[in-house]
Specification:
Layout: E1 2-5, E2 12-17, H1 21-31, E3 41-45, H2 83-89, H3 93-99, H4 106-119, E4 123-125, E5 127-135, E6 140-148, E7 154-167, E8 171-173, E9 190-192, H5 200-204, E10 209-212, H6 216-228, E11 236-239, H7 260-268, H8 271-280, H9 290-302, E12 312-315, E13 318-326, E14 330-337, E15 342-348, E16 350-353, E17 357-359, E18 399-401, H10 406-409, H11 419-435, H12 471-474
Parallel strand pairs: 1-7, 2-3, 2-7, 3-4, 7-18, 9-16, 10-11, 10-16, 11-12
Antiparallel strand pairs: 5-6, 6-7, 8-17, 13-14, 14-15
Length: 475
């Protein structure tokens, strides 16, 4: 196996690890920075190409944010990488104009991101990042990677050198502990909703199907299964831990909790207060779109027109205690309704887990940086207002994070609507350190709501560039 290191004499300004929507946004906005010395960047991902939740690209499923929440528009509306630029390149501006769509389909968002990823320079798919270290002698990060062939097998080793890194490794499907031993059952499908479309035919062949999870994904999967099953023989069960199959908070003032203003307010709160606040905000991001709720009710109602009720049970407020196999074709779910203080058992032939996603741990990837990392009282990485890991002052480079800072920046962390703003914030901070300039003008105020009593403008101060002050002050 050969090794291909990058040129140590000419390190990158920024290396991005992971190419999901957030680091793709960062790469697109970095590409737009003009000047005599443009940023040198490289972004790596182990996947062979860009794909965004392919298992959930159901026909008709839409984003829960407007099309303006693309990779760049809310920071740079004139960018050539905007969604409107994509439509223009595909000769689809007029059809989109007459369609009058504010919320586009997920499949179209995925196609747009793939269009950007296929044209944007500096993206390296098929590259698995193995380790990240800080080289104090050279004041550089070392990023070791393995280049993969089309079959995912190791082909070559390499190393990139960079002044700064941006971690965008995303999230991974969450499987509840009682079901982890059953996920690989050969005859009884236990499928996370992230892989739903890949297993849809197998699921539809099951006699009885249980969907677990009360968010948008669970609702869309339940609706798709309901529409595909014959009337009177649906044999579906939909379970949720929440008290109701509740709509997502979508009022205009409620949505202001997904603004930079709220993000700055949340970051300034004490750690304990942030931890107490997050669970209470579940309906802001874990509820169901009102249109999907209406479609489910309409479909259930349609199936009563000729008498009888559909064989579909929808039960919120239920906790899964344990689960086990029954024979070779069934599972037994042990359920508890805590409000009623009752328990029961449910036998099913297939389970779809719409149980959400969890942030991928940074510990393995950043094991080489562990001696430098500062952690909070719960052992989580501390992350500053500029979306940087708080590292030992001896580390002159910045390690930015994307979608790994919910505990410090709040519920807007995974929201696509804040992608361009966060990317621009990171790039402003990075270029200010390097050159004393900020390429993106960001609004000091973004919400009518004033969060807290500390004044409206809580924008963090960007430190002076390293060319203007000693490095110990620039950190």
């Amino acid at each position: 196996m050969t090794a291909h290191p990058t040129d140590l004499a000419h390190p990158h300004d920024l290396v991005g690890i992971g190419i999901g929507p957030f680091n793709l946004s960062l790469a697109a906005l970095a590409d737009g920075i003009q000047g005599p010395t443009p940023l040198t960047t490289a972004f790596f991902d182990q996947s062979p190409a860009f794909h965004w939740h392919p298992g959930l690209l159901l026909d008709g499923a839409t984003l829960q944010v407007p099309f303006l929440a693309d990779l760049v528009t809310l920071a740079d509306p004139a960018s050539p990488w905007s969604f409107l630029s994509y439509l223009k390149a595909r000769d689809r501006l007029f059809p989109f104009y007459f369609a009058e769509r504010y919320h586009i389909q997920r499949a179209e968002y995925d196609a747009y991101c793939r269009w950007v990823s296929e044209q944007l320079p500096g993206l390296h798919f098929g590259h698995q990042i193995d380790a990240v270290r800080w080289n104090g002698e050279r004041d550089l990060f070392e990023v070791d990677f393995t280049q993969l062939d089309p079959d995912g097998e190791a082909e070559a080793l390499g190393r990139a050198y960079t002044r700064h890194i941006a971690l965008g490794i995303g999230t991974e499907p969450h499987v509840p502990d009682p079901l982890k031993p059953l996920v690989d059952a050969p005859t009884v499908p236990v499928i996370h909703s992230a892989d739903y479309l890949d297993h849809r035919d197998r699921l539809l062949a099951a006699g009885h199907i249980t969907v677990i999870g009360s968010g948008q994904s669970g609702a869309e999967v339940f609706l798709d299964l309901l529409r595909a099953r014959p009337a009177g023989a649906e044999r579906l069960h939909w379970l949720a831990r929440t008290e109701a199959f509740a709509p997502m908070e979508y009022s205009k003032l409620g949505l202001e909790q997904f603004t930079p203003d709220y993000t700055r307010y949340f970051h300034a709160l004490p750690e304990r207060v942030r931890d107490d606040l997050l669970p209470s905000q579940w309906q802001l991001h874990k509820g169901i779109g009102p249109e999907t709720i209406a479609a489910i009710h309409d479909e259930l109602y349609r199936r009563t027109l000729h008498g009888g009720w559909p064989d579909a049970t929808l039960t919120p407020g239920v906790h899964l205690r344990t689960a086990g196999r029954v024979g070779t074709t069934q599972l037994e779910l042990h359920l508890e309704h805590r409000r009623q203080a009752t328990r029961t058992r449910l036998t099913t032939n297939a389970v779809v887990l719409a149980t959400g996603y969890r942030e991928r741990s940074l510990d393995r990837l950043l094991a080489g940086l562990d001696p430098y990392m500062r952690r909070d009282s719960s052992g989580r990485p501390r992350i500053d207002a500029h979306h940087r890991l708080v590292l030992d002052p001896s580390v002159n480079g910045s390690a930015y994070v994307q979608n790994a800072e919910r505990h410090t920046h709040g519920i807007g962390t995974p929201d696509l609507g804040l992608a361009a703003w966060r990317s621009a914030t990171i790039l402003n901070h990075l270029t200010h350190r390097l050159t004393g300039t900020e390429p993106y003008t960001l609004p000091p105020r973004t919400a009518f709501t004033t969060f807290g009593l500390g004044g409206q403008d809580q924008t963090p101060t960007v430190p002076a560039p390293r060319s203007l002050v000693p490095l110990t002050e620039a950190r």
